[in-house]
Design a protein that fits this description.
The protein folds into 2 domains: 108 residues, Rna Polymerase Sigma Factor, Chain: A, CATH 1.10.1740; 105 residues, Arc Repressor Mutant, subunit A. 65% of the residues lie in helices and 7% in strands. The N terminus is likely disordered. Helix 5 crosses helix 6. A 3-stranded antiparallel β-sheet has the order 1-2-3. It is mainly alpha-helical. It has 10 helices and 3 strands. It is elongated and about 55 Å long.
């Protein structure tokens, strides 16, 4: 046990690859900042990938990434060996929960419905992709079949709107972005500048914002 307390004496960020999360975690919980940094770096890519799965009107993806890192820090702080799940499972749960909580809080503060929060959790194409398209999420578990039906109808509506209001370029950019491509990769794929790609994604956000604002007024929010 004493060895794990002095974790930083015999391991650094480079050679910590083979050290288990649990060993690094115990050191981090004992105040070892290097161990904490190792854990944060290990899960940073997961946080970024998870953030890509969420879209909040009026917010930048980096904001959601930051929330995910806060969730990761809370996981390090709160995890204990008595928990039935591994740290990895617990950390992923905390990261996701923190992101969703931040989104729900933001929508309440702006007095907009939670359907302004779009999660990219639906297959883009049923036949050739396990990637996801935009799916409205209520932010809570739906137990009423009627509520579930309404949510499904709303999902179909927003998919139709996306197809109607986006240009071919905007649709291509959105699909590539959803599939995890970076701005640089999308620009290379489409033979465009990174600025052009950024502008296209900003137009997508604005168009969705206008649609959701109109829907908000129609729904009496």
């Amino acid at each position: 046990m004493g060895a794990t307390k002095d974790f930083s004496r015999f391991v650094n960020i480079v050679d910590a690859v083979d050290v288990s999360d649990e060993i690094v975690l115990r050191s981090a919980q004992n105040g070892d900042l290097e161990a904490l940094e190792i854990l944060m770096n290990r899960y940073k890519n997961f946080v970024k990938a998870k953030a890509r799965s969420y879209f909040l009107v009026g917010a930048d993806r980096e904001d959601i990434v930051q929330e995910g890192m806060i969730g990761l820090f809370k996981a390090v702080r709160d995890y204990c060996d008595e928990k039935p799940s591994s740290f990895k499972v617990f950390a992923e749960l905390c990261i996701t929960r923190q992101m969703i909580t931040a989104i729900k809080t933001a929508t309440r503060q702006k007095h907009i419905p939670l359907n302004s929060y779009i999660s990219l959790n639906k297959p883009v194409c049923e036949h050739d992709s396990d990637r996801t398209l935009m799916e409205m999420v209520s932010g809570q578990r739906i137990t009423n079949p009627e509520e579930l039906m309404i949510s499904q109808e709303e999902l179909v509506t927003i998919e139709d709107i996306i197809g109607e209001v986006l240009s071919k370029l905007e649709m291509k950019v959105l699909m590539l972005y959803i599939n995890g491509r970076s701005y640089q990769e999308i620009a290379k794929d489409l033979g465009r500048s990174e600025k052009s790609i950024d502008n296209a994604l900003q137009r997508v956000k604005r168009k969705l914002e206008r649609y959701l604002e109109t829907k908000r007024k129609q729904d009496g929010y």
